[in-house]
Design goal:
Elements lengths: L1 H26 L3 E4 L10 E8 L5 E8 L13 E7 L6 E5 L12 E8 L5 E7 L11 E4 L4
Antiparallel strand pairs: 1-2, 2-3, 3-6, 4-5, 4-7, 7-8
């Protein structure tokens, strides 16, 4: 009888381990979203990857290429700021874009990564003079559709 109980326990533990492995692989699936073409910086291209981490937070990673130096915009600005909208549709400043040399590298590439407790539904980038601004201005550089 003890042998039968041990076999059943081993089978149950194996099923639990398999279930946990499968569920964690689904949680870490990455959703990749592309930015729409910009009317301000038409050559700029970018993607966003969103996935859940082990703590059930949303990891947001942004990669951008061909992004003009922010000082060359009309009017010139000092920072590119990334905004996130969630279910509330209220934009939240989640940080500024940076690269290895200043805001944008010589190869016109930039990246950004942050973690959010709320699920993003849209990401967009504006040009600003203050990286800690709480509301975006009207100079939208890149944006995604709602996702």
């Amino acid at each position: 009888m003890n042998l039968l109980i041990c076999k059943v326990l081993i089978r149950v533990i194996s099923l639990i381990a398999l279930t946990l492995t499968l569920s964690s692989s689904f949680l870490s699936c990455t959703k990749k979203i592309s930015f729409l073409t910009s009317s301000v910086v038409p050559a700029a291209r970018g993607t966003i990857q969103v996935h859940r981490d082990r703590n059930m937070n949303y990891v947001i990673h942004v990669d951008i290429t061909e992004l003009a130096e922010v000082s060359r915009l009309t009017p010139p600005k000092q920072y590119y700021v990334i905004w996130m909208e969630s279910a509330s549709n209220t934009p939240k400043n989640i940080g500024k874009i940076s690269s290895t040399k200043g805001t944008v590298s010589r190869q016109l590439k930039a990246s950004f990564e942050t973690v959010s407790a709320t699920k993003p539904t849209r990401i967009f980038i504006t040009a600003e003079n203050d990286p800690t601004i709480q509301l975006p201005n009207n100079q939208m550089i890149l944006s995604t559709d709602s996702f």
